[in-house]
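chain below, 243 aa
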Amino acid sequence: MRALTAAEVLDASERGGPQFPAQRALTLLGLADEEALGRELSQLSVGERDAKLLALREGMFGRQLSGLTNCPACVEQLEFEIEAAALNLDVRTPGGPITLSQSEYAIDLRLPMSGDLVALDPALGLEGNRRWLLDRCVLRARRNDLEIECSELPDDVQSSVARRLAEADPQADLHLALTCPKCQHSWRTAFDIVSFLWAEIENSAGKLLREVHALAAAYGWPESEVLALTASRRKAYLELIEA
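prediction:
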């Protein structure tokens, strides 16, 4: 998974701006891997997708991830840092059905795919999309050996299905263990590589646009020539302008 070029960062920012997060993830991966087809990317499990995004992020911004969050107990803002390697868990490649048995119910499941997340409908709301995704991932449901619809599964069994899918694809359900230095409260918070990386892409794109504007105004170079320069070369020219 290669790093995006400066031109591709601007392209990603422009194309991904109006997209929902699940589609942005595939936009980034498609730019980073020109041989990947959209259909192939949509068949990645969410864990596989996120592992590739972590690799892309490490190649572009380094091994250390830094972010800000608020303590849920005292609302103190704190900065966290974590190594990318600590976020690389067991990536599961979609294979045979995942099974679950609970009381009189027997269920065959599959992992959610990247394409499933892209197909979610914001108009359905959180609960509507949860049910839709559950229906996609339940391949077969039986009660006392009789076939039933997914919608006939009781709430506690549906909750078990969600937990079983999370266990089967741990890379897709990352959490950070944090402790507030002010009040010592400890908690776990979800980590979403899609939104984390996208924020960095947007920041990088904004910085690139400012650099293009400054160098184009000073030297009359077109955008393509400015973006073709290495980051260190752009920095050197900017320092000469400011001298």
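DSSP finds ten helices and eight strands in the chain. The CA atoms of residues 215 and 238 lie 7 Å apart.
thats it, cya
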